[in-house]
Amino acid sequence: MAFSSRLKSHRHLLTLETLKFISGFIEHGNASLAALDAGIPETYASRQGQWLKKHPMVIAAVERELDPRDLQKLKSAVRKIDVLMEECKAILGLEEDYSNLKRSRTRAKSSSRARTRKVTPTSL
C-alpha cells in the first residue's frame, strides 16, 4: 500500500498525531512545524503537514477559531492522552521504536513464505 493510500484510508480517524498537529497548527499556523510537533519525522513533515492542513477535521478545527484558553485546554488534553497512550504501550509491552516491530513482521512473512514454498505440486 502506497504512502498516500495509507493517509487516505485514515482520513476519517482522529489520531493522537492529528490532534497534536491541530494543536500546533492552530498555535503557530505553520504546517511543517505542526507536523514536527506532532512527531512526524523531518523527512515527511513538510509533505504530511501540507496534506494534514487540508484534512477535513483540521479545517473544521481551525475554522472554530479557538480562544487562547480553549487552545490551552486542547493542549492539556492532548498531553493527557499522550501519557495514557504511553501507559497503554507499557502495559502491552509495545516498543517505542517500531522499526523492530517492522523487522519482526518482515521475518514472519519470510518464514511464512518459506513454509508455503515447501508445499508445492512439484514437491509432492
Provide a quick synopsis of the model.
The protein has 124 residues and is mainly α.
Q: Topology, please?
A:
Blueprint: H1 3-9, H2 16-28, H3 31-37, H4 42-52, H5 56-63, H6 68-92, H7 98-118
Helix pairs in contact: 2-3, 2-6, 3-4
Describe the structure using short key phrases.
mainly alpha, about 120 residues, 2 domains, about 0% strand, 7 helices, about 75% helix
Query: How many beta strands in the DSSP annotation?
Result: 0
Largest beta sheet, briefly? Answer: none
Proportion of residues in extended strands: under 5%
Number of H/I helices: 7
Gap from first CA to last CA: 34 Å
Q: What is the global morphology?
A: globular
Mean pLDDT: 80
Element-level helix/strand string: HHHHHHH
Pick out the low-confidence regions.
none
In terms of structural class, how would the helical and strand content be classed? mainly alpha
The helix content, as a percent range, equals over 70%
Count the domains.
2
User: C-alpha Rg, in Å?
Assistant: 20 Å
Q: How would you describe the overall organization of this protein?
A:
This protein is mostly helical and 124 residues long. It has helices at residues 3-9, 16-28, 31-37, 42-52, 56-63, 68-92, 98-118. The protein folds into 2 domains: 3-93, no CATH class; 97-124. Helix 2 crosses helix 3 (31-37), helix 2 (16-28) runs antiparallel to helix 6 and helix 3 (31-37) packs across helix 4. The protein starts with a helix and ends in a 6-residue tail after the last helix. The relative contact order is 0.09. The mean pLDDT is 80.
